[in-house]
Amino acid sequence: MRRPLLFVVPLVALIAGCSPDPSPTTDPSPSVTASPSPAGPDYTAWAAGRSTPVADPLYPAYGHADVDVLHYGLDLSWVPETKVLTGQATLRLRAASDLTAVKLDFSQAFTLDGVTLNGAAVTATIADNDLSVPGTVAKDAFATLVVKYHGTPTTVPMPSHRTDSEPLGLTVTKDGGLWTMQEPYGASTWYPSNDQPSDKALYDIAVTVPEGWAAVATGVAKPQEGTTFRYAAADPVATYLTTLAVGKYQKETAEGPRGTPLTYWFRQGTDDKLLPVIRKSPQLLGWLEQRFGAYPYASGGVVMVPSRSAMETAQMITMGTPDYGTTKQAEIAKYFEDDLLHEYAHHWFGNTVGPTGWKDLWLNEGWATYVQHLYSNQRDKITAKQWEDWARGVDSRLRAKLGPPGNPKAENFAESNVYMCPALMLHQIHKQIGDDAFFALAREWAQQHRNTTQDRASFIAFVNKQTGKDFTALINTWLDSPTTPK
Fold first, then answer.
1. Topology of domain 5-12+352-480, per CATH?
2. Which of 88, 96, 220, 466 could make an S-S bridge to 75, C-beta 3.0–4.6 Å?
3. Do 25 and 179 form a contact (C-beta atoms < 8 A)?
4. Per-residue pLDDT tens for 235-256?
């Protein structure tokens, strides 16, 4: 996520993300045994989506640690005139413990049109934004869940006081368009999901829209079939990193480092002034690859939406047009470039290597923020000492207001302390080990932990092993201290 607006500072200050009744299906069935027989379907095609889900203590109402979704197959249709989304979600899943029902996060805004578990119709209900599907599944057994539904998407509040906070999930625009940003949760506003960061999954998404409209989603674009747009994510993705946007978009294609295909989706007449910056994507990715290794996905790009923020949605960054507090186009372009670099950096730090739980959001944002400042400091000829002097002042104010970054409060999601404070911590490690060792550490962190989730303990263990030094006390102090460490 783009750093909060607190960090958009002038260059002279050193420029630095009513509950409806449960809805039954029309063909009830009391229970289904979902454990596959030896002759049952082969789930090895989705093995890369296997995770070890854990309950998230910061947002316990979202996520189900006993379900591991391997693959989401989403077949969606959107009608702008009626603002109705019709969907069929096919989930391949593994039981992380013995189940008597499969439970997932799903919005009560939708009506269920039919649910099957391993091919048998069942009575499913939605209550308290949870989908409950009866059926026994033995631990480590696999099952296929198909959910058909329709309705008008509704968003949920964001638990934050950021100046650019907006409702989470799939947003419907006045002209019938769609766009979404959904960190820390909100994917469940448009498809049944295990809406927590520890459960990564593969995706196939198909979206049918009217003639003249375009649909943009997570993954590599597949051949368009009529007005149906198709995307496939072959690398596992956390739910908060999925995206969907529907609108009357224009499209540009480009080529990134090593021939990586890039696609830019923009609104004619609305995003024109920012296109020159978006077209810098190959250079931005090249700068990142030189320091952190190969871009970790098969494609990339940007989709513009009517938001005040931005999000590192996997393979297709979702960019809004924030109020940067200036009318000068050159300054707007510079700040937008910083945000774009920040979101691209997340593909190494946060996307392919994600947090196991939201308490470790610093692990995403600290890295992306520090990388962003390394880039902007180099571009703007700001020395490391100048930046640290400024950053320490910011860090001190943030700890006093929001507390230390390693223990964020649930009501203060993604506020500024989890950006700048851990970025300054990484700077301390950088100073101690030097450029070569630091960039080697960063590359190996992203490459060795590709497509996994990690936490503070695993990060400390990795840093100590990689450097041959004990940084345990330094890291814990910077994450837990109520004041800026010396």
1. Neutral Protease; domain 2 (1.10.390)
2. 88
3. no
4. 999 999 999 999 999 999 999 9
